[in-house]
Amino acid sequence: MPPESQQLKNSIGIVEIKSFTFAAPPNEMTLECGAKLGPITLAYETYGTLNAAKSNAIVVSHTLSMDAHAAGYHPDDKKPGWWEEMIGPGKAFDTNKYFMICANVLGGCKGSTGPSSVNPKTGKPYGSSFPIVTIGDMVDTQRKLIQHLGIKKILCLAGGSMGGLQALEWVVSYPDDVASVIAIAANMRQTAQQIALHEVMRQAIMTDPDWNGGDYYGKKIPARGLALARMMGHITYMSDQSMEEKFGRKLFEKNKFDYNLSAEFEVENYLKQRGDNFVKRFDANSYLYISKALDYFDLAQGQDAAKVFKNVKANFLVITFTSDWLYPSYQSKEMVKALKASDIDVSYCEVASSYGHDAFLVEVKGQSHLIEHYLSRIQREVDHGK
Amino acid sequence: MPPESQQLKNSIGIVEIKSFTFAAPPNEMTLECGAKLGPITLAYETYGTLNAAKSNAIVVSHTLSMDAHAAGYHPDDKKPGWWEEMIGPGKAFDTNKYFMICANVLGGCKGSTGPSSVNPKTGKPYGSSFPIVTIGDMVDTQRKLIQHLGIKKILCLAGGSMGGLQALEWVVSYPDDVASVIAIAANMRQTAQQIALHEVMRQAIMTDPDWNGGDYYGKKIPARGLALARMMGHITYMSDQSMEEKFGRKLFEKNKFDYNLSAEFEVENYLKQRGDNFVKRFDANSYLYISKALDYFDLAQGQDAAKVFKNVKANFLVITFTSDWLYPSYQSKEMVKALKASDIDVSYCEVASSYGHDAFLVEVKGQSHLIEHYLSRIQREVDHGK
Fold this sequence. Notes:
Two copies of one chain form a homodimer.
Chain A: H1 5-9, E1 18-22, E2 29-30, E3 36-37, E4 40-47, E5 57-61, E6 87-88, E7 93-94, E8 99-103, E9 118-119, E10 124-125, H2 135-148, E11 156-160, H3 162-173, E12 180-184, H4 192-206, H5 223-237, H6 240-246, H7 266-281, H8 284-296, E13 315-321, H9 329-341, E14 346-351, H10 359-362, H11 364-383
Parallel strand pairs in A: 5-8, 5-11, 6-7, 11-12, 12-13, 13-14
Antiparallel strand pairs in A: 1-4, 2-3, 4-8, 9-10
Helix pairs in contact in A: 2-3, 4-5, 4-8, 5-7
């Protein structure tokens, strides 16, 4: 179903997915785990125009369950890309000014190389023989794409949640690549609670008999496990308050209790729908691999957090949301403290929101104002060679 | 393994589990869902001595996954009852003064009638033909036990989490039964987030093929689903802070990453152990039924919360914990507000603790002082006929 013209008018419009393949054997890429992988394909989208100086490029990175389709519409889309409200002409990430790039992460299932890709050595999907990837590997592959596009200095690395972690990993690993970072609802390392939540989700998938050790392509997929993982994820993306406001104790299509074991409350039905829809669009093995990549994320690698940013020259905007309990504000404040300890220019803002972790997707006004002005300042500074 | 003498010295010591059976056909009990159930057995324990006036009885009610064994040791116990630190000679619930009663809830699997009990009509376990039970039904059955013991007025109803909900339901339904209530980490109704968490746990069990529609007794049990539910539950019982303090990013029995999909962090191993142990001691159907009973809990039944306590005469002590995100303090504060609106004598205390919802089991000092003095005051008032 093509989008309505009204929608297209405020949008970057129809967009297309592109792909870039590199690291073809014998020049495979060595991953952080030591394994070699190649060829590697990254699916990506771009919005806006790269200027002649190639100085207006912004890389947006995505979360666990998203993909390269951050804005605009594919011809058969019912809904636009996941950050449509933030990316487009006149929006926070203004495509009249900036050249936006978003790539599906390594390990993903939306066009980039991942466990559902065919291993050229066997002619079969990798499944659980796919090597473990890290946030660092995701960065290294996106960096190849940026080099391929001829961009030497990225104006801004931006992202929320896992997208923010990629931005942080990138600027710490390759400080000369980047003029600025916008890290939203992110942190410097995954905590025990975050790892615990991921592990329960992984166990939901891996204890589903249909997971079959990761070898289920062309067979029955581990739908029950993946739906469960997604249901659980959704609870962590919302807040106590937003769930209460949206659902409270409302019943689903009834006005009194059935008194049986089935779902009766609207919130139960919502989670089930979300779980079932997710199974249609996401690969269970990608969920395992990407959640593992999150767990390994620790910018300081167990060392002194204050020294993480010692070589970084970029400017930072850090945003959190009051009701986000998955990436609580105190975690970003630790990062701000470490940035300040390294004498880095950092703006920090905690946006009041009841939407929990999802706020980074839905609190458009609260973020737009901050981001728009921040990017104008950064571009001014870059243009004046500061 | 018998407990060591040192342990016994500070304990109520060796205790025994008793049982009380009632509602034998044709005098079955009518449950809130409308179904009739009988005979009904409640397994229970008592600690201390009922005085001649039968005026020193305290009913302690348990949580989703606990049972009647609140204190002391069974002869083959390695560990004492679940509230050992709080119940015993000289402890907060002082068994030199009070007669403590704790019964396994209806729907449970530790001696009380539940889905794993044999249905006398079929000679087979009820399984999912067991009728839905509510917190109100749990109260009604415990009330039968109290009447059977000849107690006309309960000095105090006490409990944390679901135990607190039972105390609240009891005092609202039968205000003349009770002189006082200690409600710890409880609330007046289950919220959308709590229902959502329960539903994901239930789906974990019910989508396990071994659940088999609830008919798994004598066959392979839905161990994967129940372990998953427990793992998830554990995350909600702890706090971000307590998980970070206990586990952080420590690895399990290694000092570097394996880079595979298996559990590597200590927190993952801990959750797995907890899940696997739980499966050995708890029935999956009981988990479904008791979590459902929680979801139905709504003291005001959708009506004005301020009017809930209008017929209540009991005195209240309400305790919460700063880091409890499963039953956050604001929910108890709403209850305190409703109690005050009904001119009820209520003491409220928010105990500083990093232990999350588990604090009600482990914050012994913070609670003991409050409870000890509160109970002394209540008994003084009862003895002086106030």
